[in-house]
UniProtKB/TrEMBL annotation:
Native organism taxonomy: Eukaryota, Viridiplantae, Streptophyta, Embryophyta, Tracheophyta
Matches recorded under InterPro entries: Epimerase_deHydtase (IPR001509), NAD(P)-bd_dom_sf (IPR036291), NAD(P)_dehydrat-like (IPR050425)
Organism for this UniProt entry: Camellia sinensis
Function: Bifunctional enzyme involved in flavonoid metabolism.
Keywords on record: Flavonoid biosynthesis, NADP, Oxidoreductase
Pfam family, one: Epimerase
Protein name: Dihydroflavonol 4-reductase
Amino acid sequence: MSGEGKTVCVTGASGFIASWLVKLLLQRGYTVRASVRDPSDQKKTDHLLALDGAKERLRLFKANLLEEGSFDSVVDGCEGVFHTASPFFITPSDPQAELIEPALNGTLNVLGSCAKNPTVKRVVLTSSVAAVAYNGRPRTSDVIIDETWFSDPESCKENKLWYQLSKTLAEDAAWKFAKENGIDMVAINPAMVIGPLLQPTLNTSSAAILNLINGSQTYPNASFGWINVKDVANAHIQAYEIPSANGRYCLVERVAHYSEVVNILHKLYPSFQLPEKSADDKPFMPTYQVSREKAKTLGIDFISLEEGLKETVESLTEKKFFGM
Ligand SMILES: NC(=O)c1ccc[n+]([C@@H]2O[C@H](COP(=O)([O-])OP(=O)(O)OC[C@H]3O[C@@H](n4cnc5c(N)ncnc54)[C@H](OP(=O)(O)O)[C@@H]3O)[C@@H](O)[C@H]2O)c1
């Protein structure tokens, strides 16, 4: 097993992506130090403590992105750091306090702990397509977005895209800090993540699918890239383990408008009541392409959107978010 005898840490371990990351790291034999905001909240910890290998090789730590030095003890003695914690929701009442400060200052806090710790060999940052694709350039069917694209903070501000702004500022600051402090960092930039939930709470990207099957009359007039959570977690570990991995990796199985997502759901579940019209009368937002070339060098096979949607619906049903 590739991780045997090695200690790594995962921030925000109770979240959707990080829970999968912890599961796969334990499967590969790693010892995992994992941070959660509130270790006394069983909704955030029970599913982690129940993972195979957790009893022997998982240790939970309390840490908050907003507290300087909070991650020192988590990172202590780790060879690899997976920084995944960051708030992901779309309609903050105070964007600065709720999204930007935890994303930006939190990333610098975690990297600050890494800089103090000579055992750390590589940091894998969970960034997002949110930090790639929002730069005001048109996104149409002939456009191929790749790792050379960077979202533009001014464009995000103008369009009140606060989550995108938080991820853009955080990734940018992370690259600067890593360069100045000699930290070997790799960024993973996934699009909308779907697939089975390990945690008992509902995260934002899974809620996007729940909203379609839960009786809504309309679907959003939007096109997003979609990617399976198992591919995302695997890409993080590959980015850590493959010595030549570097820079950023966009992760998108394919870009699809919500109308196409609804069509796939209809084929999979003909009896479901699904929305039949777009939320506005404007032309459909075009789809675009996101290059998969660099991600393929991490050995990612890309689980299909169809499979991901099926897994998401089954998981939402099993967790009783749907069908009761
Ligand atoms: N899901 C997607 O579609 C997607 C796509 C691209 C990138 N990402 C990125 O992937 C990462 C994880 O997202 P996710 O989808 O797994 O979301 P999630 O389930 O909501 O997980 C977010 C994690 O961040 C933690 N967190 C938030 N604020 C914190 C704070 N002040 N201090 C400490 N921890 C804090 C949360 O802790 P609590 O559980 O205590 O709230 C949670 O563990 C984020 O960096 C997100 O930007 C997600």
